[in-house]
UniProtKB/TrEMBL annotation:
Protein name: Serine/threonine-protein kinase Kist
Any one GO CC term of the record: neuronal ribonucleoprotein granule
Subcellular location: Nucleus
Catalytic reaction(s) noted: L-seryl-[protein] + ATP = O-phospho-L-seryl-[protein] + ADP + H(+); L-threonyl-[protein] + ATP = O-phospho-L-threonyl-[protein] + ADP + H(+)
Coiled coil: none
Annotated GO biological process: positive regulation of translational initiation; regulation of protein export from nucleus
Domain RRM intervals: 347-425
Ligand binding (ATP): 76
Single GO molecular function: RNA binding
Organism this protein belongs to: Larimichthys crocea
Listed EC numbers: 2.7.11.1
Amino acid sequence: MAHCGSSEPSAKAQAQPQQQPQQQQQQQQGSVDQSMKPVLFEIFGEIWTVQSRLGQGVSASVYRVSSGRATTAAVKEFQADTQGGDYGYHKERSVLEDIQGHKNIVTLYGVFTNHSCMGVTTRCLLLELLDVSVSELLVRGSSGTQGGRPQQGHSMWLLQHCARDILEALAFLHREGYVHADLKPRNILWSADDECFKVIDFGLSFKEGNQDVKYIQTDGYRAPEAELQNSLAQAGVEMEGDSGCTAAVDLWSLGIILLEMFSGIKLKDTVRSQEWKDNSAAIVDHIFASNSLVCPAIPVYHLRDLIKSMLLNNPKQRCTAETALLSPFFSIPFAPHIEDLVLLPSPVLRLLNLIDDSHLHNDEEYEDILEDMKEECQKYGSVVSLLIPKENPGKGQVFVEYANSSDSKEAQRLLTGRTFDGKFVVATFYPLSAYKRGYLYQTVQ
C-alpha cells in the first residue's frame, strides 16, 4: 500500500531533519510488525519509507521512517477523524510548536497531511527519532530475584541522569505554563546522539488553569488529585473554577518513575493499595531500606528524600521541578555501571578483553594493533577517532568514536561475542562527552 502526501509548513518547525542519520529508536512495543506492508510517506516533496511501527495507540500510530539519503525520523500518524475535528493532532501540534527548542523535549521537524491511495486523509507529525525508553530500561535492566534477594534497580548514575534531564524538561514546560499530564516510562526516551533523556507525547498536555482534558495521566503514575478529578468526570460532575490539576501532577508521576527505577519493581499495584494511601512515606522508606545494601548511604538518603518530596498527597506541598533540581542528590558525582553502558547507545564504543598489556609497550606491535582495529571497526561505519590508552585509566581498552550512533549500534551488535586471538569481545557504549574530555573511567562496576 503506497501513500502519497503533501507537506504543510509548521509555524515553528519547518526544517527537515539533519542530513546525518538520526537516532535509531528501539521499539517500544515489541518487535517489528512483520505483517505490516511497506508504506511510503511523501514528506516535503521527498519519499520516505516506513521501516517499522514503533507504537500504536487509540488515536495515533508512530513509525520509524527513512529517506533515500539514509536520514531517519519518526512519523506520528493520527487516525482519520470521521467528524473532521482532528483534535488530537491539532492539540499536540500546537503544544509542540509552542515549546520547541529545549534539549530534553523531542524535536518537531514539521507537519504534513497524508493522502492514502485508499482515499483516506490523515494528519502527521515528523519528529526526531529517539532510542530506548525508560519502560524498556525497566524491563532490560532489572536483575530479578536472586538468592531470595529483591530485584535491584538501576545505578545511581542512571537515576541521576534521568532525574536531572526530566526535571529540566518539566521546569521549562511549567515555566511556559504547560502541564504534561501523561508522564510515564514509555514517554521518556534516550537520545543517543544528544546523550540525554527526552520527554515525548504531549497529547494530554494543557495550559495550567485552562484544562481542556477530562481524563489525564496513566494508571500507576496518576496523582491523587488527578484520580479524584477523573472519577468526578466519569460521574458527570463538572469541575468548578480553577479546581483543575496543576503542574504538581507531573512531579508525582516522576516520583513514581524514579522509585521504580531505583527498586527495579513495577509499583502499579502498590500505589493502588490502601496501605499506600494510608502511609506512602513508610512504603518508600521500606523500599529504600531493603534496596540500600548495594548503594552508598548518603546518595540513597538524598534520593529517597527527593522522591518523597515529589509524592506528597497535597499537591501544594509537593516540590516543584525548579526546587527539585536544587536537591543535594545532583551534586554527587557518579560513574556509570557497565550495564548502563550496554543499555544506553552513544556514538562511542568501548571494546574490552582484546589487548594484552605486553602488546602496549612494543611500539611496533602497538601501531599494528591500532591499524588493525581501525580497519576492522570501519567495516561497520565511519570511524572519527580510535584510542587505545597505554596506561590507566583505560589501559588496554579500545575506544572507537563513530560519526553517529547508528554506526556504533551496528558495530556493537556485530562485534559483541566475536573472538579475536581466542578472546571474546565485550563491546559497550561509552559517554561521548566523557570521551571528548579525555575522561576515561578507571573502574566500572
